[in-house]
Design brief:
This protein has 283 residues and is of the alpha+beta class. 32% of the residues lie in helices and 33% in strands. It is built from 9 helices and 13 strands. A hairpin with a 2-residue loop joins strand 11 and strand 12. Helix 2 packs across helix 3 and helix 7 packs across helix 8. The protein is globular, with a radius of gyration of 19 Å. It starts with a helix and ends with a strand.
Length: 283
Amino acid sequence: MQILDAKGVSYDLVQSESVEGVQRLTRMLVNNGYTTLIIVGGDSALNDAVNCLMDMEQSVRERVALGLIPHGILNDFAKFWSYKENNIEQTVDWLMAHRVRSIDLGCIRYRDKFDNECHRYFINCVNIGFIADMMNLRRQTRSVVGSRRLSWIVSLLLMVFHRMDYKMKLTINTETIQRRVMNLCVGSGPGYGQTPNAVPYNGWLDASLVCQPALMQFFAALWMLVLGRFLNHKSVFPYRTHCVEVHEAPHALVAIDGRVLDRPKGSFRITIAKEVIRFLIPE
C-alpha cells in the first residue's frame, strides 16, 4: 500500500481470507456509504464481490464502482483490461482516474443437491468438464505441495490419468448437441484463453465446445491455447449466444471463475445479464 500512500490516496484497508469474508466485507462497506471498492486478488475474489453486489438493489449498485488490483494466479479478467500484477503503480493511476464502464455478467441458474433453486454470476467464465476437474485437482494438490504455480503443473500432469470425456446434452442457440465432450467453456470474458473473442460489454456469451481429442491432439490443443490460437484447433467448436442450456452432464464438474461449484442437480442454464456492474477501467 506504499504506492497509495505516496500518491496521497485516502483509503481504508480490510482483509479477508474466505469467500464468506469477501461478501461480508463488501456488504459492510457498501452499507457504510463506500462508493468505490477495490479488490486486491484474482478472478475468484472479484467474483465474490460481484455476487454480493448483485444481491443488492439496483439503486445501490448504480452508486458503487468496483475496481481491481490483480494478485494471485487466475487474473484473466484483469489481463483483459491490461491490469498487470507487476505494474501496480500504473494500475493505481488508472483507478485514480475513476473511468467507469458498465459491464455484463454471465449467470448460471441451477438446483443444488438439496433441490434448492440457486444462481451464481460470473465475470469471466464457466467451465464444465475437464478444466473444472483440473481446478478441483489443483485445489487438492495445493494442500500437499503448497505452491500455487507448482500445484497447476502437478494437476496438469495428473490429469493425463483422469477422465477426459463426459457425456453431455446441450442446446446452444437452436442446435442441440448430444455427444461425448472434453470441456465446455462459456465466457462473458476471455475464459482463460478458451473464449478469446469474448468481451464483457457486448451483451453476448461466447462458448467453446471441445470434443474428445486423441492424446496427442490434447497436447496440441494445450499448445495452441498458450499461443492464443485455441479456436483454430479442429476439436474445438466456437459459438456466440445469449443462452446455453445444459440438459445432461451427470459426471462433469462445474467451475465458476476458477472455483469449483457443488455439483448441480439435473439440468442448468447459463445466460447473460447486460451492463449490471460499474467497473473501473483503464484510460
